[in-house]
Amino acid sequence: MSNTDYDTIIIGAGMSGLAAGIRLAHYDQRVCVLEKHYTIGGLNSFYRVNGRNYDVGLHAMTNFTEKGAKKGPLARLLKQLRFRWDDFQLAPQAGSAVAFPNIQLNFNNDIQFLRSEIACHFPSQIDRFDRLLSELIEYDDLKQDDFEISTRKVLGEIFSEPLLIEMLLCPLMWYGNARQHDMDYGQFCIMFRSIFLEGFARPFKGVRLILKNLVRRFRELGGTLRLRSGVERIDVDGEHAMGVTLEDGTQLTAKRILSSAGVVETMRMCSNSSKVDVERTGELTFIESISVLDCQPKDAGFDKTIVFFNESDKFNWSQPESDLCDVRTGVLCSPNNYLYSQEAGELEAGFIRQTSIAHFGRWMALDERAYRQQKMRWYDLSTESATRFVPDFRRHVIDTDVFTPKTIRRFTSHDNGAVYGATKKQLDGTTHLDNLYLCGTDQGFVGIVGAIVSGISMANQHCLRSDL
Amino acid sequence: MTPAEIRDEILDILSEIAPDEDLSDLEDAKSFREQMELDSMDFLDIVMELRKRHRVQIPEDEYTNLASMASTVSYLEPKMREIVKA
Fold first, then answer.
1. Residue A415 DSSP label
2. Which of A9, A91, A323, A358 satisfies CB 3.0 to 4.6 Å to A338 for a cystine?
3. Which residues of A touch B14 (CB under 8 A)?
4. Has residue A208 got a pLDDT over 80?
5. How far is A226 from chain B (nearest CA, A)?
C-alpha cells in the first residue's frame, strides 16, 4: 500500500487528535495525524523564549484524582491509553480562590473545604449547596436534550444569594464556557465536577511531559505525524469523505476522517459545503500576561495556585464591548504553587500567569507596531487590575511575555482564536458526512483531560466499532 | 490453549489495561466490575484485545459472558481451544 492511504486521517495534533491516534494505532489501524502548525499541542502547546520554557494553554490540569482512583476521566484515559498514573507525574494544587470585592472563597481538591467556606460566608445557602451537589452526582452527562438548559436559571432556582451564584460561575466559566453571559447546564456540570469535585494538578515539567508521552506512544505504535500539513480541503463525494488535499497539494485518502479543527472550521474544509453555520463560532478569546519573578511567587506573597477575581458583585462573561481587552475579571495562576514531590523540588523561575478577556477582531486589526505597544499596555492594565485582589508582585518582575488572540489563532487555527470552541456543542461527534467525525473542544469536553477523553471516545465510537 | 493459559492471557490483558492494579488477589468467581470497577469502555477493550491478539470474535450480545474471570474462561475455552500459546 502507498503511504497516502490510511484507515483514519486525524486533523490536528492536539490532545484529542493524538489520543485518538493512539487508540487507533494500538488496534493496528494505519493512522495519519495532520497538523497545520510546525509544532504539536494546539492550544496546549509550549514555546521557549529568552531561555525559559512557557506553556501556552495550561494553567492546571483539571479532573485530578489520586493514584489508585478507579473512576473519573483521568482513570479512564490512563486505562484507555495504557499509561500508568506515574507517567504524568501530577502534583496537586496548593489551594485556589475566587475573589470578589470584600469576599473570598477558598477551595482545593477536597470539596469539603469549599463547602466549609460556603457555610462560613453564606450560612443560609449551605443546604442549597448540598442540594446542588446531590443533583450533580445524579446528573448523567452528555445527553444533548438536557445539555443546553440555562445554568443561571437552574442556579437561580436553587440559591437565594445572587453573589454566591456569581462566585460559583466565575471559575467554571473561566475554565470552559464557550457561550457568553450564560452557560449550558451540561457544561456547568462537567466543569463543576472537573474543578470542584476532582481538582487541579500539574506535571512538574508542564504540558511538555504530557505531549511527549502521547507522541512517543503514537509513534511507537506505528502512527504517522505530519507537521506543517494544513488541510486545504476535505474531498467529498456525495455524503462521503474520500480524503483530504493538503495546502501543498498532496492528496491523501482514508476510510474515515476525525477532525479536531472545530465544527465550523471543519465544515468549511468540506469541498461541497454550501453554507457554514458561523453563528456557532465561539467568540471568547484571551490575552495571557506572563510575569517572570526574581523569586518564588510565594516569597512575593502569592501562595495560591489559581485566583479567579472579579471587580464587582456581578460576573460579566462576554467579549469586550469597546476595547482590546476587559480586565474587570481575570485569572492568575502560578505553576510554582503545586505540591511537587521532594525529588522534583521547585521550578527554577517564579512565574505568574494572568488571563484576561480579549477581543479577537481588534487585536487582529493592529499593525505590527501598535500590536507590540498594546501588548505592553494591556500587560500593565491587567496586572494593575489583578493586584487589587492578590499581593502586588510587580516589583519582583524581571521578564514578561504576552500572548494574544493572534497567538492562539496561530496555534489552534480556531475561528476568532476561540479558546473553548463553538457555542453549540456537537456531543456525538457526527457530521453531515457518513465518515467524517469531530473530536476535541467542540464536543463539550474541555481541559486537557477532557480533550483526551473526547479523542478516545470518538475513536472508540466511530473509528473502531465499525471494524468489529 | 488450556483454561489455565486462557486465564493467564486475560490477566495479561487486564494488567495492560490497568497497569496500576494489583491483580494478585483477583477472585475468579467475583465480577470484574465489582473488583476493578471496569466500565463498558474497558469491556470493549478486552474484546478488542482478544481480537487483536488471537482473532477471537465476540459478538456484542455475548459481552455479558465476560462478567467474571470464571465466566470469561469458560466462555472462551471452546473458542480458543485450538489456539497454540505463543
1. G
2. A91
3. none
4. yes
5. 26
DSSP B15: H
pLDDT at A1 over 60: no
Q: Flag whether residue B36 sits within 8 Å of chain A, measured between CB atoms.
A: yes
Q: Which residues of A touch B (CB under 8 A)?
A: 27-28, 67-68, 70-71, 76, 78-80, 82-85, 456-457, 460, 464, 468
As a whole number of angstroms, the distance between CA A289 and CA A397 comes to: 12
State chain B's maximal CA–CA distance in angstroms: 32
Q: Which amino acid is at A344?
A: A
Q: Could you read off the pLDDT of A24-67 as tens digits, one per residue?
A: 999 999 999 999 999 898 878 888 888 888 887 778 899 999 99
Sequence-ordered list of residues with C-beta below 8 angstroms from that of A388, at least 6 positions apart, any chain: A309, A311
Q: How confident is the model at residue A468 (pLDDT cuts 50, 70, 90)?
A: very low
Which residues of chain A have a CB within 8 Å of the CB of B52? 27-28
Q: Which residue has the higher pLDDT, A88 or A142?
A: A88
Q: Which three cell numbers stand for residue A161?
A: 444569594
**Predicted pLDDT of residue A274:** 59
How much is the ipTM here?
Answer: 0.88
- What are the residues facing A402 on neighbouring strands? A289
Are residues B45 and A84, on separate chains, in Cβ contact within 8 Å? no
CA–chain centroid gap for A380, Å, is 25
**Of B77, B80, B75, B82, nearest to B61 (Cα)?**
B75
Q: A-chain residues within 8 Å CB-CB of B41?
A: 76, 79-80, 456-457, 460
DSSP readout, A208-246?
HHHHHHHHHHHHHTT-EEESS--EEEEEEETTEEEEEEE
| Pairing mode, strands A103-107 and A240-246 | unpaired
Residue B70 distance to chain A (closest CA, Å): 22
Enter the pTM of the model.
Answer: 0.89
| pLDDT confidence of residue A331 | 97
